[in-house]
Write a structure and sequence with these properties.
alpha/beta, globular, 14 helices, about 20% strand, about 45% helix, Spore Coat Polysaccharide Biosynthesis Protein SpsA, Chain A, about 325 residues, nine-stranded mixed β-sheet, 2 domains
């Protein structure tokens, strides 16, 4: 695979970045020959530690740095952050045929992330390639199993013909670490103008419906997981349900509850098989929080604005785009 043919820009929205984000950038350095630009979109300039800013700036300005002349830092206000619009803005600074969205807490597993993520694009029909997510150290067992459930070790290509058998999984993709073909992105109109959640899957559905393919590329790996508490799970799934309700053209007619139930059953069985029956207690509360949040989000139009604001993890979005009954 020619490095020149697969030059890419990397776009990373960040919020209150710390040393972990610096490690992310440092882990990209061994593959700097593939990088045209590293575009960092930081929410609230004063929330980026000054020392971190200086270290990043040095990476972009020092002649000997692998990122010399490649680093661009853009500051935005918190009120202007949007899962879709902010990433759309990042793309506007990119001129490469491929770009990669990452989140600021996704650590490259090895020094082959970029080249493996780009490899599927040798197939001209592939529009998206997303990475496998591995659990962090200290990750709870249920979350560790969830990573394996959603991101197995086997790669696969998904197309429109898989909609019937895979359902919502056919257009599952994750901007935690996902590469896009720019020419297809432009042809399909890019990401939706704004989204509280699921901006990646909303675009992925367009990819599938337009006859292109999505590559789940298990050889491209990032370390990314969370130990969310029940309230965090509720809010996250409320926003997930709300986004599905807002975009009925994407998610309408395709039920995702069945996949969630399958995950819960599989996780419970795994906990029992591995001698962790007490983990079922945490699984129960976590699953209850996820499901109730999701159902509330799907029915957000029936809720008063005050409850929507209490339930969401993104009040800025709700205040800007959501009206109560």
């Amino acid at each position: 695979m020619s490095k020149d043919s697969f030059k890419t820009d990397i776009i990373i929205p960040v919020y209150k970045p710390g040393e972990e984000f610096l490690r992310l950038v440092e882990r990209l350095l061994p593959e700097s020959e593939y990088i045209e630009k590293l575009i960092i979109i930081n929410t609230e300039e004063e929330l980026m530690p000054h020392e971190l800013y200086l270290k990043l700036k040095a990476m972009g300005e020092a002649d000997a740095s692998p990122l010399f002349g490649k680093l661009k830092i853009i500051h935005i206000k918190k009120a202007d952050f949007d899962h879709a619009a902010t990433r759309r803005m990042g793309v506007s600074y990119s001129n490469a045929e491929f770009f990669i969205f990452m989140t600021d807490d996704a650590l490259p597993y090895d020094d082959r992330l970029i080249r493996e993520l780009l490899r599927p694009f040798c197939n001209e029909n592939i529009a998206l390639s997303y990475a496998r997510q591995l659990p962090r150290e200290g990750c709870r067992e249920a979350e560790r199993f969830t990573r394996a459930f959603n991101y197995p070790p086997e790669s696969r290509i998904k197309t429109e013909k898989d909609l019937e058998s895979l359902g919502i999984k056919a257009f599952f993709a994750s901007d935690v670490c996902c590469a896009y073909r720019r020419s297809t992105y432009d042809r399909l109109g890019g990401l939706t103008d704004h989204a509280i959640f699921n901006e990646d899957m909303i675009y992925a559905r367009k990819v599938i419906d337009s006859g292109y393919g999505i590559s789940y590329t298990a050889s491209a790996k990032v370390i990314h997981s969370h130990n969310y508490g029940p309230m965090e799970q509720f809010k996250r799934n409320f926003d997930l349900g709300l986004s599905q309700a807002e975009h009925g053209e994407v998610f309408g007619g395709i039920r995702s509850e069945g996949e969630g139930i399958r995950l819960v059953k599989s996780t419970a069985l795994h906990l029992l098989k591995t001698g962790r029956p007490l983990g079922l207690i945490g699984l129960f509360f976590s699953s209850a929080a996820k499901y109730s949040g999701y159902i509330a989000g799907k029915n957000y139009r029936r809720l008063p604005k005050s409850l929507i604001r209490a339930f969401t993890g993104n009040r800025t979005y709700v205040d800007k785009y959501i009206t109560g009954p």
